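Bug report

Summary: structure tokens for DH domain-containing protein differ between web form and batch submission.
Environment: batch mode, default settings.
Steps: 1) Submit the sequence below via batch. 2) Compare with the web form result.

Sequence submitted:
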Amino acid sequence: MDDLTNVLIELQRQGFLEKIIPSKVFLNYGDLLRNNLEFWERGLLPMIVESRENGGPLSPSLMYNGFARITEWSKYYIKFNVGHADSLNYVRKTQKDDEKFGEFVQWCESLNMMNRQTLIDNLSIPMQRLTRYPLMLKNVLKATTDNNEKNNIQVSISNKQGRD
């Protein structure tokens, strides 16, 4: 979505779709992307790399670093959640009212990166991701035998659910 935001902004620089408000369409997708990338780099990637290098099982304690900044990056999800319904309504209404924006949306939906989904569907993906983190941690917890790792995972689950 960050790429599409940049395309829309560039179109506006060229004099097209000037009445469209990019932040109402794409909200803070760029912030979410950066935070998810950091989560991957700090939490999941080190765990996968170690497992591949050592040939052993995944070490959940390495994933803990990915959740260490959850309080910081959750503010971006809060902003997204608060604005999500308004964003979808804005896209739907503007798509009907502005033919050129409708064409932009159709072009977006024709891109391979959209995986044959509508723009509206793709704009909702971060909502789905939020529900997956606690589920992922609970499944990892079930498969973990080390008590220290279990404790770290339980702390991450509690933090994710807002029970610091």
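Above is the batch result. After comparison, the two runs are identical; trailing whitespace caused the diff. The first helix runs from residue 2 to 13. The chain has a mean pLDDT of 86.
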